[in-house]
Here is the input.
Amino acid sequence: MIFTKIARLFSVFSLVAFYAVAQSDVKTASVIDADDIEYAQEQDLVIAKGNVEIFKNNYLLRADKVIYDKAHHKVYAIGNVYVLDPNGNEVSAGDLEIDQDLKEAIIENFNIRMADNALFTANKGNYYHPDRMMLEKAVYSSCPVCEGGKAPQWQFAANKVNIDQTNEKVVYKHAFFEIFGKPILYTPYFSHPTPHAKSKSGFLTPGQKYSTIYGSGIQIPYYLRISEDKDLLFSPILTSRQGILYIAKYKQLTRSGFYTIHGSYNRPRVKTSVKLDNRYYANINGQTKINDDWGFNSNLQYTSDQSYLRNYFDDNQNYLTSQMDFIYNKNRDYAVVNSLYFQELRPTIEQRKVPIILPVVDYHKEFVGSNNNRYVMDSNLLLLSRKEGSETKRFSTTGLWSKTYFTKTGQQISVYRRIRGDGYNFTRKKDAFLQNNQNNNGSNNVARLIPEAEVQWQYPLINTTNNADIFIEPVANVILSPNMPVVSNVINEDSQEVEISDDNLFSSNRYAGYDRVENGFRGAYGLNGYYRGSKDIIYSFVFGQSYRVRKDVNYSIDSGLRRNLSDVVGRMSVKPWKPVDIYYRFRIDPVDKIIRRNEVRADFTYNPYRFSVGFVAYNYLSHASESSSTRIIRSADLGGWYNITPEWIVGATATQNYTASKKFLVASGASIGYNGACTTLLFSMKKDYTKDPLRNFKPTTTFSFDFHLKGIDK
Here is the structure.
């Protein structure tokens, strides 16, 4: 810490060498160099004069003259005093006086330059044992010294400064905050913690904001250190249109974890279509370790209305998820007992029809037997209810045996045998099918058994040379399971969408949940590989296709899986040289010879420029049947940044979507930032063009300005 260093440097002067010289103690003597060293017996003084240099315990002291007054237990360093400590901190002063017992010291016209370039100067300093220092006419700055004696970017100048290391506090009296030597702000009293001190209560750097929702605003955060294990951050925003937006976050550590309580509240001055007197958001989040195997996590949240988070915090979530988890983890086994509640924020979905899950349980048991036989059991239990609508009780368990074989030529053959059993009980089942315009003739109790066998073949081929590594691996799998009838008698709660991609090409079940299952005789084949050359040149690729003997109409029209042969999917990553990264994904319809999905992203860095561009295009079969096409079929985003200097950077971003009939901006933004040796600044602007009258979403523009002083503002 900067102020502790000053006290340590004081102590070095008293013990540097003169006591050792006076006592003729060779073991503790330092390396001393001077034009002249003498002992004045009558005055009992040891005097070193002319280019004095003393080196001890990795400290270096230089001065024109150093005197050790043995009778009065004082050490004096006079003229051009300079000290270098083992950490690279430098002190220079006119004169220094310190008593041998280190209880009091006086230093004149000194400055200390720390290894991190922080600078502290004063006309006079008084050190009092053990950890207190009083400075007169003092200046502090973490900015580097400017050429030509110019004033630094910023500094604090005060008549008196009290540095209290015991309480880790620095107090300025009659202080000015100066920018380039010009006084900007005066305060009769100002304090902050010493560098590297433990957290202290106090105001943090304010921030300025503007939003078309709440107008101009200034955020004044106050940090309250309640104790070692708990604190509170209160960050209200005083707005010109909507009054005060109260924001607070409480954090507490416990013996076995932590929890936080975060929330915000506003009583609007100007009423909107929401017509609420009180708008708010609350969140409770916590983690607890019960023992070595069990833990408990929770994340509970709620908001007053559908547009509050979007209006005030630019948060566009469609729903909020609250959950509580008990988690078990031991070796290869794990279990999760999870309860979920969803707060719906979309006006087209009624809250009373939103599912409540209490609970969903997942259990995984695994062990490896002899001869590399692997055994796995996965089970799932679900209890799903609604205030209005269908309810589901489900139990599912899957047993797996697998083993991997390797041939002499390096081929890898993995064999999997699975058997899965599901049991369902439904309440008000007809409500779910009527909602989807379907007839339900099935029972409220449904059971199914799904045996499955899979063989996967891989043949990794590797070639390494002095300049490059080449890897190519063909992969294929075959899966056999019974052809199951249309599963309309099972309510689909968790397997709503599926689409073939390079990520799930070789999956045995591409559905995300349990309610829908892929079945029948099917397989997939593909090829993946990479080339890694010198100078960071990297090329990688994956592509392939799946096949099934019988068509399955359970797949959606846009899944790419309805035909016997699926769409061809792939991914390529190209880094032709260090500044360029290109990433491309595709999905091609092999019958119509149409690219159904096109996705590309490219990043280019060439100092002082950096660019990023992304593009996604969809050409799905369902688009042709949409009479008034409002579905997004293309999306593009672009970002560019320019380093004006090593410290200054400007940037801009934009995102645009396309439908069949129009294009429209989604969001855009711009920023200018500065990251200097002692100051950081950021001015940013963001515009969100989203409109949704049902949720009171209007296009918004937000401005913000933040600055931080390094060495002061943590």
User: Anything to note?
Assistant: The helical segments are 2-15, 18-23, 308-313, 429-435.
